[in-house]
Amino acid sequence: MGTAPCGAVLAAAWWGIASLLPPFLRLNLRCRLTRGRETPDSVPQRRGIASASRPPGPLIWLHAASVGESVALLPVISQLLAIGPTHTIVVTTGTVTGAGIMQARLPGLHGHERVIQQFAPLDVPRWIARFVDFWQPDVAALMESELWPNLIAACRRRHIPLALLNGRLSDRSLARWGMGRCLLARMLSAFSWIMARSPEDAQRLRLGGAARIDLVADLKEAAPALPYDPSALDELHRHIAGRPVWIAASTHRGEEAGILAASQLVRHAMPDALTIIIPRHPERGMEIETLAGHPLPRRAAGQFPTDHDAVWICDTLGETGLFYALGAPVLMGNSLPGCAGGGHNPAEPAHAGCTIASGPQTGNFRQAYARMGGRVHYVQTAQDIAQWAIAHVGPHGSDNTVPAVTSPSDPDIARQAACAIVAMAGR
């Protein structure tokens, strides 16, 4: 199925269409730069122009789309640095926020000087070829559903082994391929090693054309608790000590209006309650403040909430672990009616011992939520959220400790993935 003629025809069609897109993509990159979705450094890298030189020796290319994938990839990078002491790693991300996580977290890894961070090139044949020919990776590993036809074809033509980490394919995504299923099969057949996130994902990947699944495990559940700066936590304690606090984490456009309404309801019941909103994309902090209709303190502006503030917008990058360390109840975003939906990883607040709530849209993390069972409370409306928050909030910021939840995942998952990648690089 992976070599079916229709797959080759569709791949050629996509190659032709993508070859015509550079003028439009350059304009789009400039627009994204003005909106903060790109940086001056990322724009040329999106066209495959490297910002660093390639060191000699074996090189591993890892690619993650955004924040969640970047966090899950970090333990694999750590293991690769340990078991491949002569290897260089080029890690690419598809978003500025994902790159920010890497910039913040990579220096904490032993051997991090052997990691080169870049932005991923867009799937334009000339740009992909420029990237691959410059870096000449010995192996490429893609995270989750980062299946790009020209990227995969470029690796295939150059005999670069491909691995898929935490492979994810939802029922909806599989259905959307429709008549293009043969192109999906062509891409999946190019992978030498595939790790599926769950048995359900493994089955859908097989239906999509994967020849075999080598490992079924979830890197996101195996990831350690999010880090935080203890001195920043002490400062947080001083500012909110004694106040009832609840957190809306990784929120998306379309759900913050309900969260703000819930905050008002909580405030009626608990006049000193504080709602902390952490947008998934920090650049949306001002947008949320505008939605509220009145000034709100924003962490990105160096502001802390006063006793009169009901909401604090924490629109900085890489500090979610700091707020989870409070042990306050956490509502996971991208899950409420009104947003695109799909949920976010509940294991992250669970590692910090936080009580967790979620909206009904958790399709991207269905298995993770299923494994947590009754430990997650489900809400839909502002009234639901307020009732849950009132029942679980308490004074935070002093000696408030909550026992952390132990991850049910195999702690060696990252090492298994790293060993597979190193073995492929040596072929």
Kindly report the spatial arrangement of strands forming the biggest sheet.
3-2-1-4-5-6-7
Q: In angstroms, what separates the terminal alpha carbons?
A: 25 Å
Biggest sheet, in brief?
Answer: 7 strands, parallel
In terms of per-residue confidence, which ranges show pLDDT below 50 for 5 or more consecutive residues? Answer: 397-410
EC number: 2.4.99.12
Enzyme class: transferase
Domain 3-deoxy-D-manno-octulosonic-acid transferase N-terminal: 43-220
Pathway: Bacterial outer membrane biogenesis; LPS core biosynthesis
Topology overview:
Blueprint: H1 5-19, H2 22-34, H3 42-46, E1 59-64, H4 67-83, E2 88-93, H5 96-105, E3 115-119, H6 125-135, E4 139-143, H7 149-157, E5 162-167, H8 171-177, H9 181-188, E6 193-196, H10 199-208, E7 215-216, H11 219-222, H12 230-240, E8 243-251, H13 256-269, E9 274-279, H14 285-292, E10 311-313, H15 320-324, E11 330-332, H16 347-351, E12 356-358, H17 366-372, E13 376-378, H18 382-392, E14 395-396, H19 413-425
Parallel strand pairs: 1-2, 1-4, 2-3, 4-5, 5-6, 6-7, 8-9, 8-11, 9-10, 11-12, 12-13
Antiparallel strand pairs: 8-14
Helix pairs in contact: 1-9, 4-5, 4-19, 6-7, 13-18
